[in-house]
Amino acid sequence: MRAFGADFAVPSGYLNTASIGIPPAAAAQAVAEAVERWRTGADLPPEFDAFIDRSRAGFARIAGVPAERVAIGASASQLVANVAAALPDGARVLVAEGDFTSVTFPFAAHADRGLTVTEAPLDELTGRVAGHDVVAVSVVQSADGRVVDLAGLKAAAEAAGAAVLLDASQAAGWLPLDVTWADWVVCVGYKWLLAPRGSAWLAVHPRAHERTRPVAANWYAGEDPWATVYGLPLRLAKDARAFDLAPVWLAQIGAAEALEYVAKLDL
Prior knowledge:
The protein is α/β, with parallel strands linked by helices. The chain contains six helices and nine strands, in the order E-E-H-H-E-H-E-H-E-E-H-E-E-E-H.
């Protein structure tokens, strides 16, 4: 079918986008061509950089932030771990009751350091922010589609001096978003962004950069990745690329096409 300027092979009535987004034909074709290049030994590693730059810029446009604030990864939990690991011992985290565990488990895994993770009903979340250091919540709940009160959460967090992590995985791509104020915004690509699994992003607000730890520091997180392949000392990028995971190349190729398509759509 033809929809919003792109071709899709999805059957009529497909209702599983919240689990597996079907790619526009151009994204699927880009991945297929990449598989053929891989099969025939026709690729060189640096040739993937342009696709990664495009996917990063595409998510930045969707999130409404500059590209230098965006880190790439493969999954939401891996990116949230950068936030959880940076919290001081004894930090207090507020989450929505029954939220997707990629949002909550990275914080709960630090219980041995005294981190406490408190669940609150979604409709009571804004009233419970006071007394917490971080609020971590999905913009749209995976289990039932409920949408968090973003305006109320923003006001409550500012009043309490709490940082906010938003998971936009069930929202970005269909719900108009105003999330530039959040300290961190994480999102996977394989749902409403119509990209392959293995692509994810973390938008880091400048005020939160020093409160984020590169727990998977690697060569690709360097200022110039091709100059940080070997040897010490640690030399990471000065912007959010410091939190990059070494890219899943085929996923990023599909994401480059898919996110450019989604980002150009009228909301």
